[in-house]
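Recall the central idea of this unit: under ordinary conditions, the amino acid sequence of a chain determines the structure it adopts. In this exercise we apply that idea directly, starting from the sequence alone.
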Amino acid sequence: MNHVLKTIILLMLLFTKVFSHPHTFIEVKPTIEIKNEKIDKLHIKWILDEMTSMMLIMELDEDANGKFDKNENTYIYKNYFSSLEKQNFYMKILSNKSDVSINPKNFKASIEKDKLIYSFDIEQKIDTKNLKIDFEDEELFVGMMLEKDYIKLRGVNKSKMEQLKKEIFGVN
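Accordingly, the structure predicted from this sequence is:
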């Protein structure tokens, strides 16, 4: 009986993971400022999908004026964004194969073209050599979408830009 119970639990865990799929999709648009082959600042912009945006904007834009004021922004930060720390803000930064801690600053929620936008900065000096940045949700509830055209690099020439996009983000 104990063996049967363990098998059932294992199968439930496997099938839950296999059949899980994203409930929210986020376009990730990073802007990286580079000085002397080090990231000076990493600015991240998330654009949430239409359905998620619609539901959250209806809930969070208390005065229904199509923008978030300071109090609404503070509420969103405290009750929605900061809780993502447990998921490492859906980011993984590896520098020389070591995890880099992610401490977002300058958080701002906004509404653009009826979509909810989160933007924030990571202000850490990180060497661009042996650097990997990935955006993911290991639980597969959020689909993070990053395309080559979404990535902006400042402080490097165009040929270096293409090379860094491939090396750091793995996009062609």
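Helices lie at 2-19, 50-60, 70-81, 158-169.
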